[in-house]
């Protein structure tokens, strides 16, 4: 423990391992500025491998602090942007011009910095209920993947201080959803209440999942998941492929 603490203070980025509900995952401890660079590096490698091997790159984006990391880091990525297909791990059922719209944020902050276009994003249908939006999003994904099997190359995930990820909240019935691939939620504990979200059958079918987490406000939950192995929503992310947690020093303080 003393050696790892020294590494944190010296600014190095030790690679650790943890078992999360029986799944081995990599934990990268770094500072917030380096999170942006590390995340961009992972995305570049995974995207180029996907394009080389399968002709397209399917990525799921999240909101919150992940937006900042991606909007600053992705413009540095050397990739064939025309091969990207971008969806959302969850989305708020709000107008696209709302400050709460995850797509709206990426449209303003990411698209102008890259060669991405709006048509490459799978966006929420406007003017319908959360349930209808979830059904429509499922159909859009079926069309994009040309299959009922939604296998993302990469899901970029955040985590709330309560341990939620996507719009999968502690003790919520959606944690047990095994049939729907995209579900609606109308009672989100975090506003706005109406959202759609990928469910675990899709999340855990991904080739790669990366959590990018920073701040002292997440430290207790990071410990409860990565050290104490508590069964919280973020801990249930157990993809068939690789799982990475990229943390800054503050978020990793209790490990």
Any key phrases for this structure?
disordered N terminus; three-stranded antiparallel β-sheet; alpha/beta; Rossmann fold; 255 residues; single chain
Structure overview:
A hairpin with a 2-residue loop joins strand 1 and strand 2 (23-30). The chain starts with a helix and ends in a 7-residue tail after the last strand. The strands form two sheets. Strands 1-2-10-9-6-3-4 form a seven-stranded mixed beta sheet. It is built from seven helices and ten strands. The protein has one domain (15-248): Rossmann fold (3-Layer(aba) Sandwich), CATH 3.40.50. The model is unreliable at 1-12 (pLDDT under 50). It has 255 residues and is α/β, with parallel strands linked by helices. Helix 2 packs across helix 3 (65-73).
Radius of gyration: 17 Å
The assigned structural class equals alpha/beta
Report on the biggest sheet.
Answer: 7 strands, mixed
Q: Strand order across the biggest sheet? A: 1-2-10-9-6-3-4
Q: According to CATH, what is the topology?
A: Rossmann fold
| Stretches with pLDDT under 50, minimum 5 residues | 1-12
CATH architecture: 3-Layer(aba) Sandwich
Instruction: Tell me how many strands there are.
Output: 10
The sequence of SSEs as H and E is: HEEHEHEEHHEEEHEHE
Total helical elements:
7
Protein name: 6-phosphogluconolactonase
Domain Glucosamine/galactosamine-6-phosphate isomerase: 31-245
Catalytic activity: 6-phospho-D-glucono-1,5-lactone + H2O = 6-phospho-D-gluconate + H(+)
Keywords: Hydrolase
């Amino acid at each position: 423990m003393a050696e790892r603490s020294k590494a944190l203070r010296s600014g190095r980025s030790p690679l650790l391992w943890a078992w999360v509900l029986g799944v081995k995952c990599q934990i990268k401890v770094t500072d917030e500025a380096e999170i942006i660079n590390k995340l961009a590096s992972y995305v570049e490698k995974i995207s180029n491998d996907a394009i080389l091997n399968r002709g397209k790159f399917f990525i799921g984006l999240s909101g919150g602090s992940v937006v900042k990391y991606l909007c600053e880091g992705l413009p540095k990525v050397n990739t064939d942007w025309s091969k990207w297909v971008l969806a959302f791990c969850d989305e708020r059922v709000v107008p696209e011009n709302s400050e709460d719209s995850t797509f709206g944020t990426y449209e303003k902050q990411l698209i102008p910095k890259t060669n991405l276009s709006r048509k490459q994003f799978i966006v929420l249908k406007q003017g319908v209920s959360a349930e209808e939006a979830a059904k429509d999003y499922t159909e859009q994904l079926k069309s994009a993947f040309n299959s009922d099997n939604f296998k993302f190359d990469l899901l970029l995930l955040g985590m709330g201080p309560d341990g939620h990820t996507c719009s999968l909240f502690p003790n919520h019935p959606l944690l047990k959803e095994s049939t729907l691939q995209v579900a609606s939620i109308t009672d989100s504990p975090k506003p706005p209440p109406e959202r759609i979200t990928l469910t675990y059958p899709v999340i855990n079918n991904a080739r790669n999942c990366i959590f990018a987490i920073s701040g002292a406000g997440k430290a207790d939950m990071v410990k409860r998941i990565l050290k104490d192995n508590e069964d919280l929503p973020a801990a249930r992310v157990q993809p068939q492929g690789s799982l990475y947690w990229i943390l800054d020093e503050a978020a990793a303080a209790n490990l």
